[in-house]
Amino acid sequence: MIDLLDDLGPILDAQPLKADAQVREDCGKCGGTGFWSGYGDCMGDRSCTRCKGRGYLVFRFTKSERDRRRQAATARAERKTQAALDSFAAEHPLVWNWLNAEAPRFEFAQSMLDALRKWGKLTERQLAAALKCAEQSAERQAKWQAQRAVEQAQAQAVPINAIESAFERAKAAGIKWPKLRLDSFVFSPAGQAGKNPGAVYVKEGDTYLGKVLGGKLYKSRDCTSDQENRIVAAATDPAAAAVAYGKRFGACSVCGRELSNQESIDLGIGPICAERFGF
User: Fold this and answer.
1) Which of 36, 51, 168, 212 is most buried, by CB atoms within 10 Å?
2) Domains of the chain and CATH, by start
3) Alpha-carbon distance 275 to 47, whole Å?
4) pLDDT tens for residues 185-208?
Protein backbone atom coordinates (compact mmCIF):
# COMPACT_ATOMS: atom_id res chain seq x y z
CA MET A 1 0.00 0.00 0.00
CA ILE A 2 2.85 2.40 0.82
CA ASP A 3 4.52 1.76 -2.54
CA LEU A 4 1.23 2.34 -4.32
CA LEU A 5 0.75 5.67 -2.58
CA ASP A 6 4.26 6.69 -3.47
CA ASP A 7 3.54 5.97 -7.11
CA LEU A 8 0.13 7.63 -7.27
CA GLY A 9 -0.05 10.23 -4.57
CA PRO A 10 1.15 13.86 -4.73
CA ILE A 11 4.47 14.95 -3.36
CA LEU A 12 3.42 17.25 -0.54
CA ASP A 13 6.43 17.64 1.72
CA ALA A 14 8.96 20.42 1.55
CA GLN A 15 11.80 18.13 0.49
CA PRO A 16 13.28 18.44 -3.01
CA LEU A 17 11.19 16.85 -5.75
CA LYS A 18 12.15 13.40 -6.92
CA ALA A 19 13.89 13.22 -10.25
CA ASP A 20 11.16 11.08 -11.83
CA ALA A 21 8.29 13.31 -10.57
CA GLN A 22 7.53 15.27 -13.73
CA VAL A 23 3.75 15.79 -13.97
CA ARG A 24 2.56 19.07 -12.51
CA GLU A 25 -1.17 19.70 -11.89
CA ASP A 26 -3.10 22.54 -10.27
CA CYS A 27 -4.18 21.78 -6.74
CA GLY A 28 -7.85 20.88 -6.68
CA LYS A 29 -8.31 22.11 -3.12
CA CYS A 30 -7.18 25.70 -3.57
CA GLY A 31 -7.77 25.93 -7.32
CA GLY A 32 -4.10 26.66 -7.97
CA THR A 33 -3.95 29.79 -5.76
CA GLY A 34 -1.94 28.28 -2.94
CA PHE A 35 -4.42 29.70 -0.42
CA TRP A 36 -7.55 28.21 1.07
CA SER A 37 -10.51 30.15 2.50
CA GLY A 38 -12.64 27.21 3.58
CA TYR A 39 -13.78 28.89 6.82
CA GLY A 40 -14.39 32.35 5.39
CA ASP A 41 -13.54 35.57 7.18
CA CYS A 42 -13.45 34.03 10.63
CA MET A 43 -10.12 32.38 9.86
CA GLY A 44 -8.79 34.51 7.02
CA ASP A 45 -6.91 33.20 4.03
CA ARG A 46 -4.21 30.68 4.80
CA SER A 47 -1.83 28.47 2.90
CA CYS A 48 -3.41 25.41 1.35
CA THR A 49 -2.57 22.36 3.44
CA ARG A 50 -2.70 20.04 0.42
CA CYS A 51 -0.16 21.74 -1.83
CA LYS A 52 1.75 23.53 0.98
CA GLY A 53 0.96 26.89 -0.59
CA ARG A 54 2.58 26.06 -3.93
CA GLY A 55 -0.72 25.99 -5.84
CA TYR A 56 0.19 22.81 -7.67
CA LEU A 57 0.93 19.16 -7.08
CA VAL A 58 3.59 17.05 -8.73
CA PHE A 59 3.05 13.42 -9.66
CA ARG A 60 5.15 10.71 -11.20
CA PHE A 61 2.41 9.86 -13.70
CA THR A 62 -0.38 11.56 -15.58
CA LYS A 63 -3.93 11.31 -14.26
CA SER A 64 -4.92 8.78 -16.94
CA GLU A 65 -1.93 6.62 -16.03
CA ARG A 66 -2.74 6.90 -12.34
CA ASP A 67 -6.34 5.86 -13.05
CA ARG A 68 -5.10 2.93 -15.11
CA ARG A 69 -2.82 1.81 -12.30
CA ARG A 70 -5.60 2.10 -9.74
CA GLN A 71 -7.85 -0.04 -11.93
CA ALA A 72 -5.06 -2.57 -12.38
CA ALA A 73 -4.48 -2.67 -8.60
CA THR A 74 -8.22 -3.18 -8.03
CA ALA A 75 -8.29 -5.98 -10.60
CA ARG A 76 -5.33 -7.68 -8.94
CA ALA A 77 -7.04 -7.47 -5.55
CA GLU A 78 -10.25 -8.94 -7.01
CA ARG A 79 -8.34 -11.81 -8.61
CA LYS A 80 -6.57 -12.50 -5.34
CA THR A 81 -9.90 -12.52 -3.47
CA GLN A 82 -11.50 -14.84 -6.04
CA ALA A 83 -8.55 -17.21 -5.89
CA ALA A 84 -8.91 -17.38 -2.10
CA LEU A 85 -12.64 -18.06 -2.40
CA ASP A 86 -12.07 -20.77 -5.03
CA SER A 87 -9.48 -22.40 -2.79
CA PHE A 88 -11.83 -22.35 0.21
CA ALA A 89 -14.70 -23.77 -1.88
CA ALA A 90 -12.50 -26.63 -3.09
CA GLU A 91 -11.24 -27.42 0.41
CA HIS A 92 -14.58 -27.01 2.25
CA PRO A 93 -17.40 -27.63 -0.30
CA LEU A 94 -20.05 -28.43 2.32
CA VAL A 95 -19.44 -25.19 4.21
CA TRP A 96 -19.13 -23.12 1.03
CA ASN A 97 -22.43 -24.39 -0.41
CA TRP A 98 -24.20 -23.90 2.90
CA LEU A 99 -22.90 -20.33 3.29
CA ASN A 100 -24.12 -19.31 -0.15
CA ALA A 101 -27.49 -20.99 0.31
CA GLU A 102 -28.17 -19.53 3.76
CA ALA A 103 -26.55 -16.07 3.52
CA PRO A 104 -29.67 -14.29 2.13
CA ARG A 105 -31.69 -15.26 5.22
CA PHE A 106 -29.16 -16.08 7.95
CA GLU A 107 -27.01 -13.27 9.37
CA PHE A 108 -24.28 -15.61 10.63
CA ALA A 109 -23.79 -17.17 7.19
CA GLN A 110 -23.64 -13.72 5.61
CA SER A 111 -21.05 -12.56 8.13
CA MET A 112 -18.89 -15.61 7.36
CA LEU A 113 -19.07 -14.88 3.64
CA ASP A 114 -18.09 -11.27 4.31
CA ALA A 115 -15.11 -12.47 6.37
CA LEU A 116 -14.05 -14.80 3.57
CA ARG A 117 -14.18 -12.02 1.00
CA LYS A 118 -12.20 -9.69 3.26
CA TRP A 119 -9.55 -12.04 4.64
CA GLY A 120 -9.62 -14.98 2.21
CA LYS A 121 -10.11 -17.49 5.05
CA LEU A 122 -11.97 -18.17 8.30
CA THR A 123 -10.52 -18.59 11.76
CA GLU A 124 -10.57 -22.07 13.27
CA ARG A 125 -13.53 -21.19 15.49
CA GLN A 126 -15.44 -19.60 12.63
CA LEU A 127 -14.82 -22.61 10.41
CA ALA A 128 -15.88 -25.02 13.15
CA ALA A 129 -19.12 -23.11 13.78
CA ALA A 130 -19.95 -22.90 10.07
CA LEU A 131 -19.17 -26.60 9.59
CA LYS A 132 -21.47 -27.55 12.45
CA CYS A 133 -24.32 -25.54 10.93
CA ALA A 134 -23.68 -27.03 7.49
CA GLU A 135 -23.69 -30.60 8.85
CA GLN A 136 -26.92 -30.01 10.77
CA SER A 137 -28.52 -28.58 7.64
CA ALA A 138 -27.38 -31.58 5.57
CA GLU A 139 -28.79 -33.95 8.19
CA ARG A 140 -32.17 -32.18 8.15
CA GLN A 141 -32.21 -32.30 4.36
CA ALA A 142 -31.47 -36.02 4.37
CA LYS A 143 -34.30 -36.66 6.85
CA TRP A 144 -36.69 -34.59 4.76
CA GLN A 145 -35.76 -36.50 1.60
CA ALA A 146 -36.26 -39.82 3.38
CA GLN A 147 -39.64 -38.69 4.68
CA ARG A 148 -40.55 -37.48 1.20
CA ALA A 149 -39.65 -40.87 -0.26
CA VAL A 150 -41.92 -42.59 2.28
CA GLU A 151 -44.77 -40.19 1.48
CA GLN A 152 -44.38 -40.82 -2.24
CA ALA A 153 -44.44 -44.57 -1.67
CA GLN A 154 -47.59 -44.32 0.45
CA ALA A 155 -49.39 -41.69 -1.65
CA GLN A 156 -52.58 -42.90 -3.27
CA ALA A 157 -53.05 -42.40 -7.00
CA VAL A 158 -55.69 -39.82 -7.93
CA PRO A 159 -57.07 -39.28 -11.47
CA ILE A 160 -56.95 -35.49 -11.35
CA ASN A 161 -56.96 -34.78 -15.10
CA ALA A 162 -60.63 -33.83 -15.31
CA ILE A 163 -60.32 -31.28 -12.51
CA GLU A 164 -57.12 -29.83 -13.97
CA SER A 165 -58.80 -29.46 -17.37
CA ALA A 166 -61.76 -27.68 -15.76
CA PHE A 167 -59.37 -25.28 -14.00
CA GLU A 168 -57.53 -24.55 -17.26
CA ARG A 169 -60.81 -23.72 -19.03
CA ALA A 170 -61.86 -21.51 -16.14
CA LYS A 171 -58.57 -19.59 -16.23
CA ALA A 172 -58.93 -19.15 -19.99
CA ALA A 173 -62.39 -17.70 -19.29
CA GLY A 174 -60.88 -15.08 -16.97
CA ILE A 175 -61.21 -16.70 -13.55
CA LYS A 176 -57.92 -16.11 -11.76
CA TRP A 177 -58.42 -18.42 -8.77
CA PRO A 178 -60.92 -21.14 -9.73
CA LYS A 179 -62.34 -23.57 -7.17
CA LEU A 180 -64.45 -26.70 -7.24
CA ARG A 181 -66.67 -27.83 -4.36
CA LEU A 182 -66.98 -31.58 -4.58
CA ASP A 183 -68.44 -33.74 -1.81
CA SER A 184 -67.53 -31.72 1.31
CA PHE A 185 -64.18 -30.60 -0.09
CA VAL A 186 -62.83 -27.57 -1.93
CA PHE A 187 -60.31 -28.23 -4.70
CA SER A 188 -58.15 -25.28 -5.82
CA PRO A 189 -55.02 -24.99 -8.01
CA ALA A 190 -51.71 -23.94 -6.48
CA GLY A 191 -50.14 -20.71 -7.71
CA GLN A 192 -47.40 -21.09 -10.31
CA ALA A 193 -45.08 -18.89 -8.25
CA GLY A 194 -45.65 -20.87 -5.03
CA LYS A 195 -43.89 -23.87 -3.51
CA ASN A 196 -46.02 -26.45 -5.33
CA PRO A 197 -46.69 -25.27 -8.89
CA GLY A 198 -49.00 -27.65 -10.72
CA ALA A 199 -50.51 -29.05 -7.52
CA VAL A 200 -54.20 -29.06 -6.57
CA TYR A 201 -54.91 -28.28 -2.92
CA VAL A 202 -57.74 -29.96 -1.01
CA LYS A 203 -59.45 -28.45 2.03
CA GLU A 204 -62.55 -29.22 4.08
CA GLY A 205 -63.74 -26.03 5.70
CA ASP A 206 -60.59 -24.38 7.06
CA THR A 207 -58.72 -27.68 7.41
CA TYR A 208 -55.99 -28.44 4.90
CA LEU A 209 -56.21 -32.11 3.93
CA GLY A 210 -53.42 -32.37 1.40
CA LYS A 211 -52.39 -31.81 -2.19
CA VAL A 212 -52.62 -33.75 -5.42
CA LEU A 213 -49.36 -33.52 -7.34
CA GLY A 214 -48.15 -35.71 -10.18
CA GLY A 215 -51.32 -37.81 -9.97
CA LYS A 216 -50.84 -38.69 -6.30
CA LEU A 217 -52.50 -37.47 -3.10
CA TYR A 218 -50.08 -36.32 -0.41
CA LYS A 219 -52.38 -36.06 2.57
CA SER A 220 -51.83 -34.01 5.68
CA ARG A 221 -51.88 -35.45 9.20
CA ASP A 222 -55.44 -34.14 9.55
CA CYS A 223 -56.71 -36.23 6.65
CA THR A 224 -58.46 -39.45 7.72
CA SER A 225 -58.67 -42.62 5.65
CA ASP A 226 -62.36 -41.95 5.01
CA GLN A 227 -61.62 -38.44 3.75
CA GLU A 228 -58.79 -39.78 1.60
CA ASN A 229 -61.09 -42.28 -0.10
CA ARG A 230 -63.80 -39.64 -0.65
CA ILE A 231 -61.25 -37.21 -2.15
CA VAL A 232 -60.17 -39.89 -4.63
CA ALA A 233 -63.81 -40.66 -5.50
CA ALA A 234 -64.68 -36.98 -6.03
CA ALA A 235 -61.65 -36.41 -8.23
CA THR A 236 -62.34 -39.54 -10.26
CA ASP A 237 -65.75 -38.26 -11.40
CA PRO A 238 -65.96 -34.51 -10.68
CA ALA A 239 -69.13 -34.07 -12.75
CA ALA A 240 -71.01 -36.59 -10.60
CA ALA A 241 -69.52 -35.06 -7.46
CA ALA A 242 -70.70 -31.61 -8.59
CA VAL A 243 -74.25 -32.89 -9.03
CA ALA A 244 -74.14 -34.49 -5.60
CA TYR A 245 -72.89 -31.25 -4.06
CA GLY A 246 -75.67 -29.21 -5.68
CA LYS A 247 -78.37 -31.57 -4.52
CA ARG A 248 -76.93 -31.84 -1.04
CA PHE A 249 -76.33 -28.15 -0.33
CA GLY A 250 -78.53 -26.42 -2.95
CA ALA A 251 -75.50 -24.35 -3.98
CA CYS A 252 -73.29 -24.11 -7.05
CA SER A 253 -70.30 -26.42 -6.82
CA VAL A 254 -68.14 -23.71 -8.44
CA CYS A 255 -69.02 -20.38 -6.89
CA GLY A 256 -70.94 -21.66 -3.86
CA ARG A 257 -73.97 -19.44 -4.50
CA GLU A 258 -77.48 -20.73 -3.88
CA LEU A 259 -79.06 -22.40 -6.93
CA SER A 260 -82.38 -20.78 -7.75
CA ASN A 261 -84.00 -23.29 -10.13
CA GLN A 262 -84.44 -27.04 -10.20
CA GLU A 263 -82.46 -27.54 -13.41
CA SER A 264 -79.39 -25.93 -11.86
CA ILE A 265 -79.89 -27.92 -8.68
CA ASP A 266 -80.04 -31.13 -10.71
CA LEU A 267 -76.82 -30.16 -12.48
CA GLY A 268 -75.15 -29.10 -9.23
CA ILE A 269 -73.80 -26.01 -10.95
CA GLY A 270 -75.11 -22.71 -12.31
CA PRO A 271 -75.29 -22.26 -16.10
CA ILE A 272 -72.62 -19.51 -16.23
CA CYS A 273 -70.17 -21.50 -14.09
CA ALA A 274 -70.91 -24.65 -16.09
CA GLU A 275 -69.97 -22.85 -19.31
CA ARG A 276 -66.75 -21.44 -17.81
CA PHE A 277 -65.60 -24.79 -16.40
CA GLY A 278 -66.73 -26.88 -19.38
CA PHE A 279 -69.29 -28.96 -17.48
Assistant:
1) 212
2) 1-61 (2.10.230), 84-154 (no CATH), 161-277 (no CATH)
3) 88
4) 999 998 887 788 889 999 998 999
